[in-house]
From TrEMBL:
Function: Bifunctional enzyme that catalyzes the epimerization of the S- and R-forms of NAD(P)HX and the dehydration of the S-form of NAD(P)HX at the expense of ADP, which is converted to AMP. This allows the repair of both epimers of NAD(P)HX, a damaged form of NAD(P)H that is a result of enzymatic or heat-dependent hydration. Catalyzes the epimerization of the S- and R-forms of NAD(P)HX, a damaged form of NAD(P)H that is a result of enzymatic or heat-dependent hydration. This is a prerequisite for the S-specific NAD(P)H-hydrate dehydratase to allow the repair of both epimers of NAD(P)HX.
Gene behind this protein: nnrE
Protein name: Bifunctional NAD(P)H-hydrate repair enzyme
Protein family according to the UniProt entry: In the C-terminal section; belongs to the NnrD/CARKD family. In the N-terminal section; belongs to the NnrE/AIBP family.
Protein EC: 4.2.1.136, 5.1.99.6
Binding site for AMP: 412-416, 441
UniProt keyword terms in alphabetical order: ATP-binding, Isomerase, Lyase, Metal-binding, Multifunctional enzyme, NAD, NADP, Nucleotide-binding, Potassium
Length: 504
């Protein structure tokens, strides 16, 4: 699913009106009908609905919703802010329609706003500003926002929480943005919804399909997409009837150190549950027995060192290599990692300590081969690109890094994003907060390494790997709950996740 900018969203509306023979006012009527349904589904008529409408079409939506709720016998009160004396045509039409159905609780605010007292049982509909916002809110509107946020009422924002920009909020004023409990987004989701710092502003969100022109969406250029199951399923290549283990690649995981053998176990088990033909684990001697016992399906190659990875492995026999889980950052390991990466000519995944090593030895970043997959969490990424003050800045800088290294970056978190060397950002929808636990990343590295070994392209391996990892996490959550979820549960759920993605 594409994510469009607010400017594109406006163009999409105009295109739909021009090409799908629908009048602008009727598109608004469609939006208002869906908004009203979504509201009625959640709250019954015992709640007073207090609607704050702005001067543009976001306000027009809100006024149309007021009429629909009024006609369903909800108790509705409308405050329309008309401080410049300039209302959009569709907003004006809806004000007329509201009056025509005998509605009397309408207040037009031109200067002084006598704020109603809001209680916890009230529902506020925030239709002040939507995709037409062109600067941070200030003055009277900022005061209205603060009053809404200070109230105990539940807040439903139409399209976007008023004051929030759809994409970049680096220069916004946070306290002047509505804190919604629910955002009912019209057409497509906005990029800003996917950023963790906006969670308390956007609340729970839902997209309402008002029938925006598919043709426009297909042709719209965007760098931001949400991966869907329908994008993932076709990527999976079925196994051949006459296949043998040699057909599915030999993966190598360079993982583990003294006290961190578990990371090697987790990544190896996940790798084996993701279709790899053969797996070898290169690990310090101290982990030999552990791995032979816990992962009997894998071969173990001992490093020269008792406790740490110290000497690069020979890569001739492998189709992919994953480096970093539980490696530690000993000087001797750092040198071995840099050398291993510099000379690597097969598909490569760098995770955890391998990334930390490159952030310490930054001058060696250019040794990372083209098309390598880097799988940092926010902390690991910022050790490389520097501290960022918000997600938009972080993603922009990550795109720069992916471009300068010509690498793939899998930035892990809620909405893990796969960034391609060309700067496309694919947001992954699966997964849950239970997966924020040690070892979860090791599992992902194992999965992606398995996919690369089987011959999936880097982009496919990133997208498919993050999707199935999150899906397995969701299956595990259903079994054990978010609090108890541990990395091993994700591995145990991988078979079901793979099965669900491959069944008809
Ligand atoms: N038919 C359609 O196009 C549909 C649109 N939908 C809804 O429409 C909004 C977008 O509507 P739009 O009118 O483009 O924009 P807004 O309602 O968000 O706001 C525009 C007005 O706000 C003023 N503005 C902008 N920023 C500020 C600010 N910081 N402070 C004060 N005023 C501001 C702006 O004035 P200018 O003079 O600056 O232009 C406009 O007056 C979309 O979000 C949907 O809710 C329907 O959903 C479907 C059809
Ligand atoms: K709004």
């Amino acid at each position: 699913m594409k994510i469009l900018t607010c400017t594109q969203q406006k163009e999409a509306d105009e295109y739909t009106i021009a090409h799908n023979s629908i009048l602008s006012i009727n598109l608004m009527e469609k939006a208002a009908t869906l908004l009203t349904d979504a509201i009625c589904k959640r709250w019954d008529k015992s709640h007073r609905i207090v609607i704050f409408a702005g001067p543009g079409n976001n306000g027009g939506d809100a006024v149309a919703v007021a009429r629909m709720l009024h006609l369903k016998s909800y108790q509705v009160e409308v405050f329309l802010f008309n401080v410049t004396g300039k209302l959009s045509d569709d907003c004006l039409t809806n004000i007329r329609r509201l009056h025509e159905c005998g509605f009397t609780s309408y207040h037009e605010v031109t200067s002084q706003f006598d704020a109603p007292k809001l209680t916890a049982h009230d529902i506020v509909i925030d239709g002040l500003f939507g995709s037409g916002l062109n600067k941070p809110l200030s003055g009277g509107f900022a005061a209205v926002v603060k009053y809404i946020n200070a109230s105990a009422a539940k807040v439903v924002s139409i399209d976007v929480p008023s004051g929030l920009m759809g994409e970049d909020n680096s220069y916004n004023i946070r306290q002047n943005i509505v804190q919604a409990d629910i955002t009912l987004s019209i057409g497509l989701p906005k990029l800003a919804f996917l950023f963790p710092e906006n969670e308390e502003l956007v609340g729970e969100w839902e997209v309402l399909d008002i029938g925006i022109s598919q043709e426009y969406i297909e042709n719209a250029e965007t760098r931001y997409l949400i991966t869907e199951e329908k994008d993932i399923r076709p990527l999976i290549t079925p196994r051949h009837k006459f296949a043998h283990k040699g057909n599915y690649g030999h993966g190598l995981l360079i993982t583990g150190s003294y006290g961190m053998g578990g990371a090697a176990v987790l990544s190896a088990r996940a790798c084996l549950r993701s279709g790899v033909g053969l797996l070898t684990i290169h690990t310090p001697v101290c982990n030999h027995t552990l791995l032979q016992t816990c992962v009997p399906e894998a071969m173990v190659e001992d490093d020269v060192h008792e406790r740490f990875f110290a000497e690069p492995a020979e890569l001739d026999n492998y189709q992919a290599v994953g480096i970093g889980c539980g490696l530690g950052q000993e000087e001797i390991t750092a040198q071995a990692v840099i050398e291993q990466v510099r000379d690597c000519e097969i598909p490569l995944v760098l995770d955890a300590d391998a990334l930390n090593i490159f952030s310490t030895y930054r001058n060696n970043l250019s040794y990372i081969p083209k098309n390598t997959i880097l799988t940092p969490h926010i902390g690991e990424l910022e050790r490389i690109i520097g501290r960022c003050s918000n997600s938009y800045e972080r993603i922009s800088k990550a795109k720069d890094l992916a471009n300068s290294l010509q690498c793939y970056i899998v930035l892990k978190g809620a909405w893990t994003v796969v960034i391609t060397p060309e700067g496309l950002c694919h947001f992954n929808p699966t997964g849950n907060p239970g997966m924020a636990t040690g070892g979860s990343g090791d599992v992902l590295t194992g999965i992606i390494t398995a996919l690369l070994a089987q011959g999936y392209s880097e982009e496919e391996a990133c997208k498919l790997g993050t999707y199935v990892h999150g899906l397995a996490g969701d299956i595990a959550r259903n079994k054990v709950g978010e609090i108890s979820l541990k990395a091993g549960d994700i591995i145990e759920a991988l078979p079901e996740a793979w099965k669900s993605l491959t069944k008809n």
